[in-house]
Amino acid sequence: MDTLRGNLESGASYLTQHCDDSQAVGAILADNIEAIASMLFGEGYTDEELEIVIDHVSKCTFNAYDQDCDIAAAAAAINQCALNQGGTGWM
Predict the structure, then answer these.
(1) Could you give the angle at the alpha carbon of 75 between the alpha carbons of 81 and 61, nearest 5°?
(2) Which pLDDT tens digit goes with each residue over 19-77?
(3) In a domain, 45, yes or no
(4) What is the count of structural domains for the chain?
(5) Contact between residue 47 and residue 34 where contact means Cβ atoms under 8 Å apart
(6) Buried b (16+ CB within 10 A) or exposed e, 15-40
(7) If you write DSSP's letter for every residue of the chain in order, what string do you get?
(8) Any domain includes 91
């Protein structure tokens, strides 16, 4: 998970490569992504589970760039997407 934070904060990630302050924006993204992954999958989430959350950042399922992101609402939105696609969801 340190790789995620490092990539986001350095601007190496496509999610922050065009940000004026990739360190600050990357920290917000990493905090939000990690919190949502923990809510959905528990503290021991895998890289594959983390990718599910990142995929939903890319799809704009929720605004992960918002410092005041509602983590519970974002997790619920991702869960609902899984349900809508015929999956069982995680919540």
Answers:
(1) 50
(2) 999 999 999 999 999 999 999 999 999 999 999 999 999 999 999 999 999 999 999 99
(3) yes
(4) 1
(5) no
(6) bbeebeebeebbbbbbbbbbbbbbbb
(7) -HHHHHHHHHT-STTTTT-TTHHHHHHHHHHHHHHHHHHHH-TT--HHHHHHHHHHHHTTSS-TT-TT--HHHHHHHHHHHHHHTT-----
(8) no
Q: What is the pTM of this model?
A: 0.92
pLDDT at 2 over 80: no
The confidence band for 1, taking pLDDT boundaries of 50, 70 and 90, is low
Quote the domain boundaries for residue 56. Answer: 2-84
Integer Cα distance of 21 and 75 in angstroms: 26
**Residue with token string 């924006």:** 25
